[in-house]
Amino acid sequence: MRLVPDNPENRDVRVPRLVGLMAVDAHEAARAQDLFLTAPDRPDLRAAAVDHVVRQYPPPGAQVPRKSAVHVWFDFGEGEGGGGIREPRVPRPPLGGLRRELAEPGEPGETGKPPSSCAALSSS
Description:
alpha+beta, 3-stranded mixed beta sheet
């Protein structure tokens, strides 16, 4: 049996959580763990400084050898074809919903007469 001395260079490291971080912060977090950051969807990773990480592999907490690559994907910016969040919708949908369809209790119906449920209640 051959014993390998306990060398910090040989130890595995935990992958930090990078999702939600800006590219520049994700790069620093990976570097602090002695890992490399790669972005398959962004060959110009340095230019993506303010984009936010939306996915990573390996997942946070995984044990990997030092100097390993962590792959990250970024949110598409404005005008780059990303799905993005579509809310709030502009123009907003019309107000009313069910109230537009049904008269409120006590209000006259389309014929000008009170609704039948209100007619039974009135004593005049």
